[in-house]
Amino acid sequence: MNHIDLDHRHAVVTGGARGIGLAIANRLIASGASVSLWDRDAELLKAAQNQLREKSSPSIEIVDVSDADSVNAATEATVTKHGTIDILVANAGIAGPNHKTWEYPVDAWKQIIDINLTGIFLCCRAIVPHMLRQDYGRIVNVASIAGKEGNPNASAYSASKAGVIALTKSLGKETAHKDISVNCITPAAARTRIFDQMAKEHIDFMLSRIPRGRFLEVDEVAAMVAWLVSEENSFTTGAVFDLSGGRATY
Ligand code: NAD
Fold first, then answer.
1. CA pair distance 211, 100, nearest whole angstrom
2. 137 and 128 in contact (C-beta within 8 Å)?
């Protein structure tokens, strides 16, 4: 494992209670950061906190990222406890069900956009002012290969992740005059509990589209994020980092 220096940095990882978020939290702690896990699932948060406790006990906040009041309260609580937020990994997200666009349930569409896109907007909206004040910040928004390619039977998810890519580009330009970087990543499928929300045919489709011929590992995501949130990432901003195993060569 490469050594990335995140000493004295405080990181918020949303959706940090399991899956990709938990792997990222683990890696950031291994790199010297202190971490706050934000998630809407209180039981999972406790379990994650216990799992990470041996290395460095993370703070936990029960947050619904799609709710502005909840995000604002968690931001204030985190800044009060830790003095600052240097790093935001906006990772919380859901897949939602698989349907053709013309059959997509309207409620499911709205929920996916609320969590995956508005949730990242709300977290950035609450935390960026703190980064502007201290003239330092590193943000990674978790998009998806679906946001570049548009997966069939997943239009809500794909549209939400395309929105995350555009939001990242806008915010990157707005903060580029400061020592703040805002980038996003576009992972291919990684075997996490998010698969529980998808049809088996959809999972098979995603695997068939990966030239590497295997699923992405969560630690591979964490390795890329660890560098993106480090001080050394001082120039690149508003960019999209590919983790698609060769599927997207753009
Ligand atoms: P996961 O389901 O294992 O974990 C998601 C976490 O987010 C859970 O702990 C959940 O409780 C939390 N969460 C969901 N809605 C929330 C809300 N409203 N507020 C706060 N927390 C909430 O999924 P994962 O695979 O770890 O996915 C993490 C991110 O990576 C998501 O944004 C997902 O879209 C993205 N992604 C995943 C894959 C994949 O194949 N696993 C591929 C590309 C992108």
1. 25
2. yes
Tell me which residues are annotated as active site.
157
Cα torsion 227, 25, 90, 38 to 10°: value is -160
Strand pairing partners for 14? 38
Question: Relative to the CA of 18, which ligand 1 atom is closest?
Answer: 9
Q: Name the strand (E) or helix (H) holding 13.
A: strand 10-14
This prediction has a pTM of 0.98
For the segment 15-72, what is each residue's pLDDT rounded down to a tens digit?
Answer: 999 999 999 999 999 999 999 999 999 999 999 999 998 778 899 999 999 999 999 9
Query: 3-class SS at 46?
Result: helix
Q: What is the CA radius of gyration of the chain?
A: 17
CA distance 109 to 145: 18
Question: Strand runs (DSSP E) across 77-231, as ranges?
Answer: 87-90, 137-142, 180-187
Contact 169, 163 (CB under 8 A): no
Q: Are 119 and 162 in contact (CB under 8 A)?
A: no
pLDDT band at residue 79 using 50, 70 and 90 as cut-offs: very high
Instruction: Return the best residue to mutate from 13, 18, 20 for the ligand 1 pocket (most ligand atoms within 8 A of CB).
Output: 20
Round to whole Å and give the CA distance between 38 and 42.
10
